[in-house]
Every structure is written in C-alpha cells, then in structure tokens.
Task: structure prediction
Amino acid sequence: MNFDFSDDQKFLKSEARKFLEANSSTAQVRKVLDEDARTHDEALWKAVAAQGWLGAAIPEEYGGLGLGHLELCVIAEELGRAAAPIPFASTVYMLAEAVMLAGDEGQKAELLPKIAAGEVIGALATSEGPGPVTPGSIQASVSGGRLTGTKLPVTDGDVATLALVLAKENGQAGLYVVDLTGEGVGREALQTLDPTRDAAKLSFNGAPARRLGGAGEGFSLLEQVLDRAAVLLAFEQVGGADRCLEMAKAYALERYAFGRVIASYQAIKHKLADMYVKNELARSNAYYGAWALNTGAAELPVAASAARISGSEAYWFAAKENIQTHGGIGFTWEMDCHLFYRRSRQLALVAGAPRVWKERLVSQLERRNAA
Result:
C-alpha cells in the first residue's frame, strides 16, 4: 500500500511552500508578536483565502475547491512549517469540518461558502476551565435557542466571528453555532505562550445558538470533529518539526567551537539524529491518519490518536533540541527558535493534550481487541 502523495499533491506542496516563504516569513510572524494590537496576520489571511486554501476540502457546490482532505493535509504541513499566524486550524479543521459532517443543507449552504471565502473566522469552544472536557464539566446550557455560560480558553476566540460551542439542552449535550458578533456575547482576551494564536474567555448571556446535528449528539460529533482535526494538526506539527531540524542542522554546520564546526561533535550528531527519528515516526503516523481520513476508514479514531500523540511529541522535542543546538543564543528574542517552541506548545494543547489522546488511543484499542 502506497501512502505517499501523488505528483499533483507534491506540486501543490511545493507551490504552497513558495507562497508562504514569500508571504509568511519569520519576520512577518514577529510583527504579530511585536504589535500588541495584532492577534493575527490579516493580510496573510486574505491572501490564503484568495488562494482557495480555506475551501480546499469544501465541495464545489458550497464554494470550495472540492480537492479533498489529502490536499488539505499538504497545505497544513506547509502552514506548520511557516508557523503561519492565522486562525486556519480553528476555521477549517474544526468549524468547516463540523458543518460538513453534521450541518443540514441550509447550514451548509449558508456557512461553507463564507468559510471558503474567508468571510468568517471560526473557533471551537468546549473547555470551561482546566482539565479534560467531560459530560460533568459542561455547565453551559441552551434554552429556547439561547446560550448561557462561559468558555475558556478558546483558541482564536478574540478574532473569531463564529464559534462552535459545546453545551447542554434538556440535559443532553449538543454542538451549537453561535455568532460572536451578535447579541449576548462578551469577550476577554487571555495571555498565552504563543500570542500569534490568541485565546479568549467567551461569555454568553442569552446568545442565539443553532444546533448542528441531532439532540444529544454533542460528544459523539465532537469526537468525530477532533479525530479529523487531529490528523490535520499532526501535519502542521510535522511541518514545524521538520523546520526545527533544518534550523538546527544549518546552525550546527556553520557554528565553530574549539576550531571545529559543532556538527562534527557526537553530542550534536545524536541530537539531530534523535530529532530525525521522531520526525519520521510522526510523519508515518500522520500519513496513516491522512489515509484513514480521506477514505473514511474505520481505523480513523486509532490513526488520529496515534498521529496526534507522535506529532505533539516530535514537534516539542524538535523545538526544544533546536534551542539546545543553538546554545545560549538560542534562548534570545533575536533568534527564531522561540517562534517554533511557542507554536509546538500551542498545537499540543489546542485540541486536547497528549495525555487525553493517549487515553483515547488505549480505549480505542481495547474496544477493537474486545470485538
């Protein structure tokens, strides 16, 4: 079985890299960090929308390109490599996937064209504080089509125009679409390790809410959305991890210590080799996840969990070792190492911590083995 991308997908990957090198350099990422008023790169967001990337997996009848999830995986890897400071994941991997998965015809016709055109920014609002999201942790409620409650932290919640909110109605959990620019919505920006992907506390006081899917399907739909998002996030993590390895290798080949390039020292060789091994393991799991996602295979929950776990581990390790390879200067603001370390931490938590995914993986394997 060949898990590699086709020639057309490899060409898309090459063109996406060229585009992001020209439009999302580390200098442009730093502008978002340096300017307190900025939460994302608005010019890049518009440019990405013009490229059609937001609608890569959205069917043509709803204003998308209709390419499929494999092409979206290719784009995700390049976005991760560039540490692009835009709310792409929240809008495409979560909101768009949820609407395509559970929206009725009217919801799809209304929302998907706007997502593809970049007219809306999405956010996934499930957590109400520290710890994993469980039926017992959800206090937000819907009554008569109105949402009341608080969600925090919500990634990209400070810039989002639409939120996908997990809440209860008559004791049953559901996923609801809420217009964050409408009535009954309050926002409070939160400080994060990676300000290029902002977070917020969202407060709802009778905000209009529309349910996706059937009553009581909230957690089931959420798991399906997160499985899809996990694969796509894994590709972002693989892209970022590869960039860290390239940075560490390039620096090791040019930095001299005691008359020798530091790449000639065994300790540095071991660091680079360990980074490479973890990156390739993450890539293998991401490819398996991409196959399962694209074909709708029954293995998707297992493949998504494995991709999520290995992707998080590889990116964090590569970002950490990249700093260590650079030595003392690697910790400074002037170097770009911290941009990727910040993003590695943000991506590891945005759709559930690795600990949660490890528990999901074990549960899925136990369930499969018992069948």
